[in-house]
Design brief:
Strand order of the largest sheet: 1-2-3-4-5
Number of strands: 5
CATH topology: Alpha-D-Glucose-1,6-Bisphosphate, Chain A, domain 4
Number of domains: 1
Structural class: alpha+beta
Radius of gyration: 16 Å
Length: about 100
């Protein structure tokens, strides 16, 4: 996940998940609109009695707005880049390779 530019934000070995985010908007967007856009990946790892472990990658996106009154977050549909990162991560797990930044 780090090689794709994501920062880990939450992990739970017991629950079997990892969550990471990557800021996808620039400083200009924040200055003009007060918004920061972040792609989010959630990776779930769970046991399957028939085939061993299963991995699920879910892409999401958030819009974090800041103004004089505070900060709010709103969920959005995943970006194409976020979906591509989720697929690249799953593919790297399937073939044992590590994705490199810029795959999307």
């Amino acid at each position: 996940m780090n090689e794709l530019g994501y920062t880990l934000t939450n992990t739970s070995k017991e629950a079997g998940f990892i969550t990471a985010t990557k800021q996808t908007s620039g400083m200009g967007t924040k200055l003009l609109t007060g918004s920061e856009y972040h792609d989010q990946l959630t990776i779930s790892i769970f046991g399957d009695s028939a085939s061993g472990r299963k991995i699920r990658a879910t892409a999401g996106r958030t819009d974090r707005k800041s103004n004089l009154f505070g900060t709010s977050s709103q969920a959005m549909k995943p970006s194409e880049a976020g979906k591509a990162d989720a697929n690249a991560l799953l593919q790297s797990c399937a073939d044992g390779s590590m994705p490199t930044q810029g795959l999307n």
